[in-house]
Every structure is written in structure tokens, then in C-alpha cells.
């Protein structure tokens, strides 16, 4: 399975993850998360494969998360509503989001990337 890395080039965390993947020789397809966020169905597959709570997919430190008041709204939203919202705005998605449809990592922690994606 091909590895897809949803990245935002203005994000330091994304740049660190991209550098780690490159340094470790891990091949991946770079997808600009803001310009081409995953579709609702892609997000559903990624979420199911991750085993994580869907709320973990939200970029809680982002400006738009705060502007939309999502801290208060998420507890009352259905999974479908959350998936719609995430698919509609790549800046709401925690990044980097790296997946091969079976394994999923969110954010950048070198030890988690090493465990999930191996490397040299």
C-alpha cells in the first residue's frame, strides 16, 4: 500500500515529518491537506483504520477550530457531521496525517513514525 502524507507546507510539524520520512528513506505521496483535503469517505476509512476517537482528528490548536467554537460544539456533533466538517476544511484536520489505508499516524512524534513506518 502506498503511503499518503497529508501535509501543509507552512506547518513546522509537517516539515519535520516530511524531513523524517525523507531522511529514513520512506517513500510517500505528498498531498497538500489544505488544497486537497481527504474526502468524507477517505476520512471515514482513515478514521476506522486508526482506531482513534474521531475528535482526535481535529487540529485543536488551529485558528479555525477556535473561530468555529468547536470545543463546545464537537461533543454534540454526530460522526457524520464531524466527517463533513473535516472534509470541508483541511485546516481543521490534525496534521501531518500519514496513512497507507491500514496504518495511520497523526501529528509528529519520531518514535510513533518509526514504529508505524519503519525507515532505514
From TrEMBL:
UniProt-listed PANTHER family: ARSENATE REDUCTASE, PROTEIN YFFB
NCBIfam families: arsC_related
Family per record: Belongs to the ArsC family.
A Pfam family it matches: ArsC
Gene3D superfamilies linked: Glutaredoxin
Protein's recorded name: Arsenate reductase family protein
Domain of life, source organism: Bacteria
